[in-house]
Amino acid sequence: MDISRNTMEIATACATALVGGVVCYGASLNGISWNESGPQPGYFPFYIGALIIFGSAATILQTVLRRASTSDVFIDGERLRTIVAFFLPIVVMVAISAWLGLYIGMALYTFYAMRMAAGFRTATSLLTAAIVVAVNFVIFEKIFMVPLLKGPILEYFGIY
Questions:
Q1: 10 to each of 61, 63, 87, 147, how far by Cα in Å?
Q2: Mind telling me which residue stretches traverse the membrane in this protein (predicted)?
Q3: Domain co-membership, 37 together with 87
Q4: What is the CA radius of gyration of the chain?
């Protein structure tokens, strides 16, 4: 199954237009006009959303007009399998992080990416996963003092 560049450009433009529509809708709930004290809170976000929609429409128009001359393959079956092989573990990491905490999810994903996907030795993969978690812990928890989701395992060991 091949996906053409034109198909992907149109799909991406539709997705960004949808984002622009959500921005416009949210802004309209806060007021998008001027009153006696100036612009209402949704005034500027509404026009940013409108610009996103306009840019998306221009991309769709440009893609449709050159459709006859371009049939480049954006992604083929083999490339799609490679993307899915890295994307699905990220989805699993997000699920694990929500359940067991970000540091556990980060460690498991780093280990998986290095050991299973890239083929590094087990010891190297474990050491790298531990270093990634430790560095992130120091940066976020100690330096920036931004607590990240710990989950029940780290709380059990008294790491809050």
A1: 9, 7, 22, 40
A2: 42-65, 86-112, 118-140
A3: no
A4: 23
d(CA 148, CA 160): 9
pLDDT at residue 71 greater than cutoff 70: no
Last residue of a domain, one of 53, 75, 97: 75
Burial 95-122 (b: 16+ CB within 10 A, else e): ebbeebbbbbbbbbbbbbbbbeeeebee
What domain range is 66 assigned to? 3-75
Lowest-confidence pick of 14-18, 24-28, 39-43, 57-61:
39-43
Beta carbons of 136 and 146 less than 8 angstroms apart: no
Instruction: Read off the pLDDT of residues 124-149 as tens digits, 9 standing for 90 and up.
Output: 999 999 999 999 999 999 999 998 88
How many domains are there within the chain? Answer: 2
Answer yes or no: do 66 and 93 share one domain. Answer: no
- pLDDT bracket for residue 154 (50, 70, 90): confident
- 35: β partners: 38
